[in-house]
Amino acid sequence: SQTIHQWPATLVQPVGSPLSLECTVEGTSNPNLYWYRQAAGRGLQLLFYSIGIDQISSEVPQNLSASRPQDRQFILSSKKLLLSDSGFYLCAWSAQGTGGYTFGSGTRLTVV
Amino acid sequence: ILNVEQSPQSLHVQEGDSTNFTCSFPSSNFYALHWYRWETAKSPEALFVMTLNGDEKKKGRISATLNTKEGYSYLYIKGSQPEDSATYLCASSYGGATNKLIFGTGTLLAVQP
User: Cβ–Cβ of B43/A98 closer than 8 Å?
Assistant: First the structure.
């Protein structure tokens, strides 16, 4: 069966520090991968999606970047965090083309 | 910019009440409508995926309908229980290999025992 792992669960980082959140999927090949963020009082916003290794699309201009160095690994990064990067980050995967998402357990990021 | 809207934002009901929420979405180039249930401290969990106009899906006491021509979907919960308390998210997709979902802001349901 397919599983998705996301870590860490919580993170408190100072402004200006770097960020790396990791997501891995098991039990499937060539998944679509997604990073979403929920900022306080807002809905889930799509940040990045990937349909294959090294194929990353960004949905909104921001202080973050994403990479997919392996088929089932998706990494969200920042070189210098801003206060506005605080939020709840969710990784998800889906089969290509159609179907629902399976979400990771999320990371609560607080930038102080 | 594609906007998916959900109403109400929040809902407080008594155990045993039936309730429903609305999701409206752009109908142009629509491909699929998804409903998720998101409990506090857990991951969103898929409830339904619907694609055809007039689709109805059911899972226990929860059901959903879809109108793709006018761009809305309803989620119904019959005889709400405290364990139904969660945020209910809807999301629409517009096809293609990317399968991007555009989420609404959710409806927070609180069921009082």
Answer: no
CB contact under 8 A, A97 and B97: yes
A interface test, pick of B6, B7, B88, B99 with most A CB neighbours within 10 Å: B99
* A86 has pLDDT over 70: yes
Q: How far is B23 from chain A (nearest CA, A)?
A: 13
pLDDT confidence of residue B40:
85
Q: CA–CA separation, A5 vs A18, rounded Å?
A: 21
Q: Which residue in A96, A15, A110 sits closest to B97, CA to CA?
A: A96
- A60 or A106: which carries more pLDDT confidence? A106
Query: pLDDT tens-digit profile of B46-99?
Result: 999 999 999 999 999 999 999 999 999 999 999 999 999 999 999 998 877 778
| Helix, strand, coil in percent for chain B, rounding step 5 | 5, 50, 45
| B84 SS3 class | helix
